[in-house]
Structures are given as C-alpha cells and as structure tokens.
Amino acid sequence: MRENSESSVACHHRVGFLGLLVTLGIVFGDIGTSPLYVMKAILHTGETINESTILGALSCIIWTLTLQTTIKYVCVALRADNNGEGGILALYALLRKMKRKWIYLLAIIGASTLLADGIITPAITVTTAIEGLESISPHLPVIPITLGIITIIFFVQRFGTESIGKSFGVFMLIWFLLLGVMGAFSITSYPLILKAFNPYYAIVLLSQSPEWFLILGAVFLCTTGAEALYSDLGHCGRKNITISWLFVKAMLILNYLGQGAWVLNHIQTASSVNPFFSIMPQSMLIFAIIMATGAAIVASQALISGTFSILSEAMNLHFWPRMRIKHPTHVKGQLYIPVINLAMYIGVVLIILLFRDSSHMEAAYGLAITITMLMTTLLLGFYLRTKGVARIFILLFMGAYCVIEGIFLAANLSKFLAGGWCTMLIGGILFLMMYVWVHAIKIRRHYISTKPLDDYYQIISNIKADESIPKYASNLVYVNHADKEGAVDDKLLYSIINKQPKRADHYWLINLEFADTPDTLEYSCETLVPDTLYSITMRIGFRIEPRVSLYLRQVIEDLVASRKVDLRSTYPSLRKNGISGDFRFIIIHRVYYPESSDNRQQNLLMSLYALIGKIGIDEPKALGLDTSMVVVERVPLIINQHNDNIKRIVQMEEEK
C-alpha cells in the first residue's frame, strides 16, 4: 500500500524551462508582489526624503534579500528537507523525536503566525494593485472592486485551480520581466542609485536616522515571501527554486532601484503617490495595473493553497482538529478545506473594511511573519546539529540570524498599535488553539489504560466459537489507540467481551502510526490468532489524508490474493456463491466529564478542547471510514479514580 507521486509533480522537480516556469508561478507570488508596497511604506515612515535616505533604504532592501532570502532560505533552509518537503512543520517532523519535548512550541508558534500572515497578504496585495486605478480616476470605488476580486478568489477554490494554475508560470514570467525592464529604464534617469549596493549606506542610515526602526519595519516587507519559498520546496524542488531565485532577485532589485531613482527625481511629490506605478509610462499604466492585479491574485492563491497544506500537515501532527478536506482536482496535493476557506475569506474582508487602504495595512503586515522566521531559525539550528554540522558554524548561524530577525521583530513591534495587533491577535488565537489541542490529546492518551493483548487470545477465540452469541458481524474492525506494541485499549476489550459480547468470524485491530516523513503510506499485518484475530499497522505520512476504509480494502485484497485469509461468508447460502462477509467498524469514543477531575487547569483545557473540536469532524469521518458501517461506542474518560467507598447499611432483625 504505497502512494506514488504523480508524473506532473516529478516534472515540476525536473530542472528545465518547464520546471522553472512552474516554479515562478507557484513559489514567488508573495515575494514577487512586494515592490507594490515596500517603497511606498518606506516613504510613509516620516523620514526626510533625500539621497542618503533612499540609498540607505535601498541598500537595506538589497542586503535583506541577500541575507534573509538568499543565504538563509535558498542556501540553508532548502537543504533542510523532509524527503523533499519543506516548511516549518515538515522541519519540525524531522526533529520531534528529539529529547527536547518543548520543541513543538517553536513549530506551533511559527505555524500560527504564518497562518495569520496568510490572511493579511491577499488583502494588502489586491488592495495595493487596485489602488493603482486611482492614478487614472481618483474617484473609483477601490474597496468594492477589491472585495469583488477577493470574493471571486475564494469562491473558485471549491472548483480547484488546475486549469488557471498552469498559466501562472507564464504570467509571473511576464510580471517579473515587467518589473525588471521598467526598473532598469527608470535607473537610467539617476544612475547614481546603483551606489545602494554598497552596505555602507544601510549602516549610515540605521546609525543616524531617528526613524530607523520604522524604516526597517518597512524594509522587512521585501522578504515576507521567503518563508513561503521554503514551504513550496516539495512542489518544485530545490534546484528549480534556486535557479529561479537568481532571476527573480535580479528583477526585484532592478525594480526597487528604479523606484528609488524615480523618488530622487521627484522628491517633493514622492510621498503622495505609489512609486511602483509612477515609474510606468502613462501608455502602459493600464497594462501595469492589470498585471499587478493578476500578480496579486497569484500571490493570494499561493497563500490560500499554502494555508490548506499547512493545516493538513497540522492535523496529522495532532496540532489541529480533523476537518473535512476536499480534493477538487486530480492534482496531487491540491486541497480545499471549506471551513478554513470561509474563515479566511471573512478574515480578509474584515481586514479590508477595517484598514480601508494599503497604507494602513502595511502597519499590520510583517510582524507575524517575523516571528515565523525566528522560529524557523531556531529549528534550523537543531536540524544542523542532527546532521553533525560543526558547533561553531551552528552558533554563528543561529547567533547572526537571531540578531538580524530580533532587530526586525523589534522594528515591527513599533507598528503594533498602528495595526500589528491585528495579525498578532489572529496568530495568538491560532497558537492557543494548537496549544490546547496538543495538550488535550496528551491528557487523553495518558489516561487510556491498556492490557496485554495475548492474555485475551483464548477468550476471543471462544467468543467466535460460541454460537449461542448472536453474530455481530462477519468482520469486526477496531481502531486500537494503544501506543505500546502488543497492547490493546482496555475499552476495546470491554466492547468485545463485556458490553454485548460480539461474535465475529474475524477480528481486525487497526493501529495508526503517523510518520515523520511526508508521503509514507505502508502497512504491516500480523496474524495473532489464525483465521480469527489480525493486527494491521498503517504508517501514514504527515501530508497524507487518512482513508482507513480504502486502505483496509487494499490490505484485505492483498491478504486474500496471498491466501492468508478467507473472507467468504460463513453463511452457507452466501458461501456457496463466493460472497464475502460484511464488515463493521467499532469506534471507541472517550467523553470527558469535568467532574471526573479535581484539576481546574485540566478541566479548562479539556473544555476548550471540546469547544475547538466543534469546528472539526467526528472520528469516523476523520479516519475516512464508511459511516454506514460504523458504530460509535461512547465511554467516559476517567481522570481520577475516586476512592470514596459507599457503606452498606445492614438492617438487623430485632430479637424477639
């Protein structure tokens, strides 16, 4: 039982023009739209606009792209892959067996802030693009147009984006060429802008400007898409991303320099317009706005798809409740989570209505993703240690990037009251939900009592042979939640033996193991009692959606083909016609009652767990079971065994 990669995915990993083109469309939408608002944000910091300021800001942009995106993510992070997959959760999956049990906190902090950033990105990119229309007609209704585009983006998710996704690469190639050509053309009007490559100007600006914190907060927006670049490693492959980045970085820098040149030629009016659209010839303005809107849509699509993928991974890592996942197309990895799509849509709409224009949104943008990058740095440090990298290199790497990202974090915190609180609030809520979910599952597992399965082989065999017990099903399937090998959940035994003894021809125990690798899908089967009791262990990668019914069918077909089991019905009328027996799944669902524990903190945690669980789906659906064949047996989750003994009152007869 293995899942093979689609040929199209393999094609995307192959280095060539097609692979590079697809990479442009999938990976660089977020970072590729940053020229729409970065320079505008710098001009709105309140710093005096002059050559020193612009050269210093551009130097900060160039070296931020070099240090953050090129060195940290392209040169280091892309090599920290989990069987070809990237992203903070894939990185955590490689490390979760480390002795440092608290390391999961880094993962859920990073994931929650990354998801929060995914809500602000569609709002700011689409709004900024549509605001370009104001240079043509100042009275155009920007907000309604933006909301209309956002609505369409989220509405089409349910149908999948396979058809339009194929054109994203071509579109983004044209977009980046537009950025580079227009930037290069503008540079010719002020060639001295090329001095910005010298880091001296960045150092001077940061050491002398009283607004350096605000400037750094704006500069950081140029690299917010770097984390998405790492997350998309599995879609395109390291070599394609690395080669594509050389082209993308060159085009971005040319555009930033071109905007800087225009600003220095129009110092008096620069702060009142968006330099991105100002460097465009008037005859190309409509085309530029259309391209900017399209690029914003590509970036939004990438963030939405990335959010679905992150939450899908979080479900298998037990960070998030199981939710209904749809596969709108046959493309491997393309997901659609209706509840999350609706929640994101509402969030984006509220942000647009709250902040009204992109200038105000810039204050909310960047703070959350800074925290994600810092968490990735810490996890990369642990990863490098597992690979035997020299300690001195690890210390230098972590020290340098903790300082760099710490400074960026402090700079972005200066925007907290102006709008940063919004994404931090969203990220905080998501973190709380993940934290509660992780700890509640630990509590549930801790209080699951188990028993040695081999002690009950004979009893189960006797139940099968006892014809005085009505047959419950031909094949009875249980999901065994015991973590220890050879052990079984005691409530499972109670269900078979004590609670309406269940006679069956075959008993199947399913053990689910979620692997640290992304695409693992395999099983092992052990015959515990010949022709009676079987144990199947399914190992499922953290990117694979569990479909236990489907997997069990494949396992059974393998066993029947190898003549290890006879599934023909024991009813003579059915057996002589070769008809197989029926299957019935039993799910043991533990219900937590607050009165079972005296621990108030634990009660609060489990109450929040139950509340969060309402956004998810029940266990049969979460495991991909055919619900028509499932029986759910509810049992209490016992936390404390109270020792209060009730006394018997014995009435004595009076002696006559």
UniProtKB/TrEMBL annotation:
Domain K+ potassium transporter C-terminal: 477-631
GO annotation, cellular component aspect: plasma membrane
Molecular function via GO: potassium ion transmembrane transporter activity; symporter activity
Bilayer topology term: Multi-pass membrane protein
Domain of life (superkingdom): Bacteria
Protein name as annotated: Probable potassium transport system protein Kup
Keyword Oxidoreductase: no
Pfam families found in the cross-reference section: K_trans, K_trans_C
Entries under InterPro entries matching the protein: K+_transporter, K_trans_C, K_trans_N, Kup
Keywords per UniProt: Cell membrane, Ion transport, Membrane, Potassium, Potassium transport, Symport, Transmembrane, Transmembrane helix, Transport
Function: Transport of potassium into the cell. Likely operates as a K(+):H(+) symporter.
Catalytic activity: K(+)(in) + H(+)(in) = K(+)(out) + H(+)(out)
Localisation: Cell membrane; Membrane
Family (UniProt): Belongs to the HAK/KUP transporter (TC 2.A.72) family.
UniProt domain K+ potassium transporter integral membrane: residue ranges: 21-449
Transmembrane segments: 15-38, 102-124, 136-156, 168-192, 242-264, 284-314, 335-355, 367-385, 392-411, 417-438
